[in-house]
């Protein structure tokens, strides 16, 4: 069995590299928005925003590769099963490659469906389509990187995840500045920069996972295609995929409803969503720490370690949430002004900035429960909780959006996170009780 001792140091050793690596992701989004924002027009900001959200939603349908792989690898490692650890990476890479090729092949109907759902203006839609038609060719790399990252996190190699993310986003930012501001490529330049970053990131990720390819465990096909292991992986992944579809559908509904309020509101919401991403990615480091340590505790069948992992990771996350709330309250208006030179967009974004200050504390419980349940691979409960939360969110939108407009959208989103936390909290006692019965 792997060491399941849970300490503050171990929590932070896992979490801090993830916090730092995740911090580069919203910075990238802010740079994308800021670079395009220097053109002084609302439509290009909205186009990059809606194009990126559509592709992120599409790719995140396969986010189960990151989350499911982390939980399963942590449990295999905690249970002292190195053969299964290597086999999980091989399975994940196979799924990622096939899924990416499928997305590329189906891009025409996928784009048609996305734009049919979106009520954005003709100008925004045309620019967003140009952006997506370039970026879609990075799908095999982007989806496979989920499997690589999940494996590294499950192995507690979060410094390697930081290196990978720093490389990808560093390349992306540098090429953004060169292609858009230097060469004047506009929206297409942002897309090409991301495409190059994704493929180079895949190559680096494979190198960082090289320990899995030492020996022949990674290509022991009887183990890789073991029916029982495949069934378990399929159940875990399908539950997480359904949960991800509902989650991303909720965010896309938010974006599309906001787009119907005009280009300025769409652009303002896109800028404010950068604050949401900063929050999610910062706190996700602690949720991932819970994933890894809870997974190890489940593999070792250590109930006390599971509870301690959940509590310590959540305690540190609470500290981070308070700091983020203070940061947004004090510096939010300045950040908005940096991200766009459009006065109407700035004015619109300023109206909703106080929602951003509240968001870290409101969203924290749901993100931490996600981490605990992913690590324990209690994905059925996650699926059921998300179904219940989505039904509530739909009702909140029907009531609040007509009454409050864009404020109603933000309030419904906050209530959605609160309900997510409450529904998962209801399932937590059964999760702890299952520790003694868990098996790899």
Strand content: under 5%
Number of helices: 17
Written as H for each helix and E for each strand, in order along the chain, the element string is HHHHHHHHHHHHHHHHH
Helical content band: over 70%
**Secondary structural class:** mainly alpha
Radius of gyration: 21 Å
Mean pLDDT: 84
Q: What count of domains describes the coordinates?
A: 1
How many strand elements?
A: 0
End-to-end CA span: 12 Å
Low-pLDDT residue intervals, each spanning 5 or more residues: none
The largest sheet, given as strand count, sense and whether it forms a barrel, is: none
Tell the overall outline: globular
List the helices and strands and how they pair.
Elements: H1 8-37, H2 42-60, H3 64-78, H4 82-105, H5 107-117, H6 122-135, H7 139-154, H8 158-182, H9 187-208, H10 221-224, H11 227-259, H12 263-300, H13 303-339, H14 343-350, H15 353-375, H16 379-404, H17 406-433
Helix pairs in contact: 1-2, 1-8, 1-12, 1-13, 2-6, 2-11, 2-12, 3-4, 3-7, 3-11, 3-12, 4-7, 6-9, 7-9, 8-9, 11-12, 11-16, 11-17, 12-13, 12-14, 12-15, 13-15, 15-17, 16-17
Describe the structure.
Helix content is 85%, strand content 0%. With 440 residues, it is mainly α. The chain has one domain. The longest helix is centred in the middle third of the chain and has 38 residues, at 263-300.
List the main descriptive attributes of the protein structure presented here:
440 residues, mainly alpha, 85% helix
Structure in a nutshell:
With 440 residues, this protein is mainly α. The protein has 17 helices and no strands.
């Amino acid at each position: 069995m792997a060491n399941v001792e849970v300490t503050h140091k171990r929590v932070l050793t896992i979490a801090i590299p993830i916090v730092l690596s995740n911090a580069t992701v919203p910075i990238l989004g802010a740079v994308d928005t800021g670079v395009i924002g220097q053109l002084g027009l609302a439509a290009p900001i909205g186009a990059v925003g809606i194009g990126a959200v559509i592709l992120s939603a599409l790719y995140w349908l396969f986010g189960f590769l990151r989350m499911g792989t982390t939980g399963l690898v942590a449990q295999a490692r905690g249970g002292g099963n190195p053969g299964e650890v290597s086999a999980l990476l091989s399975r994940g890479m196979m799924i990622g490659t096939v899924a990416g090729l499928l997305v590329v092949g189906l891009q025409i109907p996928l784009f048609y469906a996305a734009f049919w759902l979106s009520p954005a203006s003709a100008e925004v839609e045309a620019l967003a389509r140009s952006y997506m038609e370039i970026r879609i060719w990075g799908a095999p790399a982007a989806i496979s990187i989920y499997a690589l990252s999940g494996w590294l996190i499950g192995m507690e190699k979060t410094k390697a995840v930081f290196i990978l993310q720093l490389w990808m986003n560093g390349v992306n930012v540098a090429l953004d500045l060169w292609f858009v501001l230097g060469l004047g490529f506009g929206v297409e330049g942002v897309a090409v920069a991301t495409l190059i970053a994704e493929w180079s990131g895949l190559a680096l990720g494979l190198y960082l996972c090289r320990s899995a390819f030492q020996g022949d465990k990674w290509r022991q096909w009887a183990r890789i295609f073991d029916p029982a292991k495949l069934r378990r992986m399929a159940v875990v992944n399908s539950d997480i995929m359904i949960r991800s579809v509902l989650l991303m559908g909720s965010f896309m509904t938010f974006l599309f409803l906001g787009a119907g309020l005009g280009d300025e509101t769409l652009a303002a919401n896109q800028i404010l969503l950068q604050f949401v991403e900063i929050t999610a990615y910062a706190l996700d480091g602690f949720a991932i720490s819970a994933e890894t340590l809870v997974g190890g505790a489940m593999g070792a069948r250590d109930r006390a370690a599971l509870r301690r992992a959940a509590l310590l990771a959540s305690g540190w996350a609470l500290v981070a949430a308070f700091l983020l709330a203070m940061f947004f309250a004090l510096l939010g208006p300045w950040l908005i002004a940096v991200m766009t030179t459009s006065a109407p967009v700035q004015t619109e974004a300023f109206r909703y900035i106080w929602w951003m200050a509240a968001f870290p504390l409101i969203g924290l419980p749901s993100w931490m429960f996600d981490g605990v349940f992913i690590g324990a691979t209690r994905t059925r409960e996650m699926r059921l909780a998300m179904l219940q939360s989505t039904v509530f969110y739909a009702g909140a939108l029907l009531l609040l959006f007509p009454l409050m407009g864009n404020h109603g959208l933000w309030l419904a989103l906050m209530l959605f996170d609160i309900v997510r936390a409450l529904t998962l909290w209801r399932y937590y006692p059964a999760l702890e009780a299952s520790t003694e019965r868990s098996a790899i």
